[in-house]
Amino acid sequence: MLLKNHSGLILECGTDEAGRGCLAGPVTAAAVILPKNFKNTVLNDSKQISEKKRMLLKPIIEEQALCFGVSHVFQEEIDTINILNASILAMHKSIAKLAPIPEFIIVDGNRFKTYPNIPHETIIKGDGKYLSIAAASVLAKTYRDLYMEKIHEEFPMYNWKKNKGYPTKEHRAAIKEFGITKYHRKTFRLLPEQLKLTL
User: Fold this and answer.
1) I need a labelling partner for 36 at 20 to 30 A (CA). Which of 52, 158, 178, 180 fits?
2) How far apart are CA 187 and CA 132, in angstroms?
3) What EC designation does it have (predicted)?
4) Is the dihedral of CA 58, 63, 65, 70 positive or negative?
5) What is the pLDDT of residues 53-78, one digit of tens each?
6) 3-state SS, residue 29
7) Is the whole-model pTM more than 0.90?
8) Which CATH superfamily is domain 12-152 in?
9) Measured between alpha carbons, how far is residue 56 from residues 43, 71, 133 in Å?
């Protein structure tokens, strides 16, 4: 059973990201403030529920949340500032979209940079402990998946609609065969034998 609140404050926002370990596409974060009376028995860490259930939860969260924000940070910026900084930036950008402004932020994981004027706490495996972080994990994942399905149309040989940019055998084989696209993260180890990669 996921907990509703960590800080005891009403305007507590949960934040999480998706796509950190991908070879292509953005890292996407979401921030969500849920109402006090929010209930949902299906909602859990997005990695624990099926894609179908995530897509069903997406409009429920969007309708029932007090507010939510979603932000992509794209591959060019990931290559410039590194994936950890890009993940935190995406979370900050999502929090900046919230109105009302949260009184407290709970963050999935153990790394975060202080958001101006709002206290926060990092919670390891928070997406499996708190409803607002789980809701943020579902929105981050669904928004990112939909984006990857869209760019799949442009480069179908990498099968992003299935692997969403993660380093599957099939994705790596396609990189080996076709090289990389503008959507690939150039600072990531795209192939085990990186030296042979033709840009």
Assistant:
1) 52
2) 32
3) 3.1.26.4
4) positive
5) 999 999 999 999 999 999 999 999 99
6) strand
7) yes
8) Ribonuclease H-like superfamily/Ribonuclease H (3.30.420.10)
9) 10, 20, 17
